[in-house]
Amino acid sequence: MFGDRMLRQETLKPKSVGATLSRFSRYFRPFWLALTLAAVLMAVNAYTQVIGPVLIGQAVDCFLAPAAFGEEGAGLQLPANTDLQAETDSQANCWYAPEVAMGDPGRNDLLRGLLNITLVITAYYVLGSVTGGLMFFSMSWTGHNVLRRLRVRLFNHLHRLSLGFYTRNETGDLMSRITNDSDTIQQVVSFALVQVLSSVLLILWIVWQMVVMNWVYALISLSVVPLMGLATLWFSNQARKAFRVTRQSIGDVNAELEEGISGVREVQAFSREETNIEQFRQSNAVNRDANIKAVAYTSALAPTLEALGFLGIAIVVGVGGVLLLRGQTLAGSAISLGLIVTFLGFAQRFNMPISQISVMWTNIQSAIAGVERIFELIDEVPEVQEKINAQPMPPIEGNVSLENVEAEYVPGEPVLKGINLSAQPGETVAIVGPTGAGKTTIINLLPRFWDVTGGSVRIDGVDVRDVQLHSLREQIGIVLQDTYLFSSSVMDNIRFSRSDASDEEVIAAAKLAQAHDFIERLPEGYETVLGERGAGLSQGQRQLLAIARAALADPRILILDEATSSVDTRTEQRIQAALNDLLRGRTSFVIAHRLSTIRSADQVLVLKDGEIIERGTHEGLLARQGFYYELYMNQFRRQEDLPVQPNGSGPPAAVGVPASPAT
Hints:
Blueprint: H1 2-10, H2 17-25, H3 32-64, H4 84-92, H5 98-101, H6 107-160, H7 163-168, H8 171-213, H9 215-221, H10 225-262, H11 264-269, H12 273-326, E1 329-330, E2 333-334, H13 337-378, E3 400-410, E4 413-423, E5 428-432, H14 439-445, E6 454-459, E7 462-463, H15 469-473, E8 476-479, H16 490-495, H17 503-512, H18 516-520, H19 539-553, E9 557-561, H20 569-583, E10 587-591, H21 595-599, E11 603-608, E12 611-616, H22 618-624, H23 627-640
Parallel strand pairs: 5-10, 5-11, 8-9, 9-10
Antiparallel strand pairs: 1-2, 3-4, 3-6, 6-7, 11-12
């Protein structure tokens, strides 16, 4: 399973790097001032690194080997055929020793000049260290702010996506994009990005300085650069493809981990530990193989560039040394010992940023793959979207109608087929049917969790597709079978449906739902902080809190999806009176198998294969002895163990409808 999934993922072609980086750069625009400061500091830092070899070369020519001045013991004596004009040029380049440039320096002058230029070189290196530190701080500050904006944008988008998206994507993979992919990007924008940019600037500046000093010697010294460029391009392209697979595979690992932890009780109950461990081992193996493949390319890049860098140094020393010893010139200028030392320093500094780029390239390629995955998620178009001119939903009275409604999750596979129903304000509509009949699909259409593919859903005569989603959903209350509680206090969990509700209103809603007594018995009452998904509470207690949450919202339309299926009979009796009060005056749609809720329903709709095959009241449908009666006889009667009357008719009227999971 995992091999097939990763094989499919490896065939995915990464998007254009340029397009991805261009889009990502838009997130930096609000921080242009910090970026400008970082750019200035980067330029100053690069200058200090370029000027260093130049000054060292001057120290050699002007103070350590001033052969042009002929003083005995002053320094290295060049061959007799050295061009005199070249000597004059060398003297003229002694910026920090004017007395040397003017000729006939003494030993004290040379020592004083050497001390001066040493102090200048030291000052430049100190300046480079300070500007480098400030540059990294500025970029790190910018990077963290950019990542904050990107995470917020991604989190907001996740809340706008339709429910269908979450049925197709694993939670672990989505979390991996927000956490692992974002962390990888953060490492790059905080450190690697500025390192690469400063290295590129340094390379360009070094090339320009070498060309200015002696363009022919520069071309010879830089002859290996095209080979470095080709090697970097090929290895980085392969690494980016491999790192894209690693980002996807770590999402699979997280998905397996999240499912394994969340479902640990079921795993242990069915003795599935070894099977789950083996599946997790397989997903880890896929991630390992993907990482090894990516590292293989990035590991090969660094030694390749290092070898080419050493070749470049050998060319600088070899060609320069031969020209120096022969007293030959290049581009009309003599090759002095100081020039060779300067170019040697340039070559070393040239190789250093290239090596840094190759090292940082691992993180950069991984980050680009992470950015692509995040942008793929941001580009996901919600299946349910508001119209451009959508208007707020007026206060709902509760008249609901479905007209020739059709719905499907997979194109060509209809779930609902020509559904028609009408509910007047204050009516309760019960929806029953076997698994897969389409019960939950109907109630998901009311708040537009899904959209119809045919027909229309109207509330008070208004098509739900014409109004703003927020204004529609805030007037609809929902109590689901699987109650989700947040890791916060009981008070905040109930208040989740209405953030502006007072404590008194929350307590009143809890009393209405018959939840007040058990809440008071908790260690800190309403301020008790619940565990993950309400850990520590029984299923029935969690359901009572969900009912209290719906009661606090005071919706005009109420949806109960198996809302009492998880509570025991005694608890149901306690909350039934509360439900009766909650349902009174509201248009309600109920999917349930409990007797009292169904018996009092104004309408009972029986679904089968996406169609309404029967409708009426509970007693009327039982008397008809159709499909509804068969459901009752085959499923519900066995649960209650009620005898069938001798005449073949159904049990007494005080019965419910069969239990049926949500569809």
